Amino acid sequence: MNKKFNWVDYLIIFISILILLLFIYRFYYRDKNQLVNNKDYFKKVVLLKLEEAPEFYKEVFQEGDKIYLTSTDEFVGQIKRLEISRAHTNLIRNDGSLVQAEIPEKYNIYLYVESNLLEREAGYYIAGVTEVLVNNSENFYTDRAIFLATIKAILE
Q: Distance between CA atoms of 152 and 133, rounded to whole angstroms?
């Protein structure tokens, strides 16, 4: 049985080849035409501060832990150093003067996170998308904890 192609057969073949070419372009040439090169990323240290964190957080963080941004699940970086100090508050005495007092079982935790940031005119970006703003509070997570921290500085 010898059957000839009609216009529907040619249309199906044409659409199949078009879809195949689209996939090849999308996955093969996509990496070559990126707007952002890897050389545009710079290693920076992002200083995160957890204010008045419970004693639990004192034991949770370790150097080398990976930190992620909760809102976008982007990798921020690894903890290179951490500093823990007692949290303080200002109290007013009966005579009106201020005195600093330690808050029991509360700590200020500073996390120095080494991160690859993209530097643009408007500022620094994590993964080229999420802007890093100093004095901005963000939700972060590690494999052991979810926490709210304030970005205090971007260091060299």
A: 9
Express each pLDDT in 76-120 by its tens digit: 999 999 999 999 999 999 999 999 999 989 999 999 999 988 888
Cα separation, 71 vs 40, in Å, equals 24
Both structure tokens of 51 = 């204010």
Nearest 10 degrees: CA dihedral of 66, 70, 73, 75? -30
pTM above 0.85, yes or no: no
Burial class (CB in 10 A: 0-12, 13-18, 19+), 126: buried
End-to-end CA distance of the chain: 76
Cβ-contact 119, 42 below 8 angstroms? yes
